[in-house]
Amino acid sequence: MAACGPVDTTALMTLSCRGWSARLQLEVNLNRSFYCFALLTWRMPRKVREPRRKVPDKNPEKEARMLTSRITKASSAAEFKRRRQFRQADTSSSVWAQFATRLQDMLRQDLLSPRSTANTFYAVGELYEVLDKGMTQVMPTLCETVRAKAAGMEPQGLSTCMLAAAKLQDTSPDVLTAVPALAKRIPDEVEDMVPQALSNILWAAAKLQDASPEVLDAVPALAKRIPDEVDDVDPQALSNSLWAAAKLQDASPEVLDAVPALAKLIQDKVEDMVPQALSNSLWAAATLQDASPEVLDAVPALAKRMPDKVKDMIPHHLSNSLWAAAKLQDTSPDVSAAVAALAKRIPSKVAEMIPQHLSNCLWAAATLQDASPEVLEAVPALAKHIPDEVSNMTPQQLSNSLLAAVKLQGPAPEVLDAVPALVLRMQDTVDVMNVQDLCNNFWSVGQLKDASPEAQVLASRLMKPIRSKIGKFAPVALRMSLQAAQWLQEDKLAARLQEELDRRQR
Description:
Layout: E1 9-17, E2 20-28, H1 34-42, H2 60-73, H3 77-82, H4 88-91, H5 94-108, H6 114-135, H7 139-149, H8 155-168, H9 179-189, H10 195-208, H11 219-229, H12 235-248, H13 259-269, H14 275-288, H15 299-305, H16 315-328, H17 339-349, H18 355-368, H19 379-385, H20 395-408, H21 419-426, H22 435-448, H23 455-469, H24 475-487, H25 491-505
Antiparallel strand pairs: 1-2
Helix pairs in contact: 1-2, 6-7, 6-8, 8-9, 8-10, 10-11, 10-12, 12-13, 12-14, 14-15, 14-16, 16-17, 16-18, 18-19, 18-20, 20-21, 20-22, 22-23, 22-24, 24-25
């Protein structure tokens, strides 16, 4: 079967199962495998079709025909899902069980070529979230077939299989069994890969690196090839590649070879980037700036374009962009061009933010307030919503939020509205705080003792673990803790901290 990925296809398959056979010719012109999958599912050989019966409403044949009709009117899986054309009746249609049975038989009889195997794997990946019950029994066999056929796959097939594995790894961990064989094959095929395939595989490698470290074997070859093909990369693939490089830089430093070329091209492609691509690219620039300073060349163009797109950003994009701006303000001051628009948009989206978004935005506001005072516009809304989310915050997020409140209490006193809820929650997390968090939190409490008296309750809970871990404190942590103890008039603890500092200076 010809590839059912981002290229036009013509599919030809011979099916043989339980003594019957049928030749099915599909002429398909579209950009995604969704259409192929639907046709394979519905157009069953006449010998196994159930006779049509005039049963009102719940006729499974009628339901299947309606399902196929609606799917084939959609040009892609993305469009189909966006228009929400799947109904509950569609997901429970008997046609999916019939397809799963047919597919299982074909896999067991080894009837699929490497190309057909890749197409099927990609199609299942696109539909699995709504059809997981029907596909659960098929997945182990399909994944084993992908593994066995990887050596014969063309570049496009390798790319689509890697995408499917990345998407399915959480819901169907069986896909991880196929990844090592796919990754092993990729270096031999990179020279013949189109830019989209290179980008897709690098993105998939970033997503799969923890669950299947073998995927890292493919990264050096990809990174070496990308600069030669980067001129033909579209804006979304460009953003995905830069994001993947940021995610992979520690586990596979060779990926940094691709960054200068990617960063240079972003300046030419930024006008056509969607909000997600802008946000991901700015986040990647902030994350990559130390390891690959060339990425900073892309920041001015990204920051300049962002104000025109913030109205369409979701909370995740807003949070990542503001965090990135805070990280980049010293190395690329032009990033400040994006801050005012981001800060203005955040209050309308704050109710949809998860704890990480809230913590990151408050930290970023504290960091950006001097260079971009417009960021203070977002603080009241953030502070108002934080109490509703503190129960789901990690110790790190709690600590960052409290430290941000200290730095913001002067220019944005509304931030103090969040402090009582923060310190109350932190009392329950003291036992799992690391040394740095203990130090930061104790210092923050000392700073807040007058503006928010509730903070002093946390101080008494922090002092016991501080005493037991003083020997593990770095010098700067010892000095910060000593300062806080003096502010709080905790003389015994202050004396113990001073004693430890003196001992280390001998």
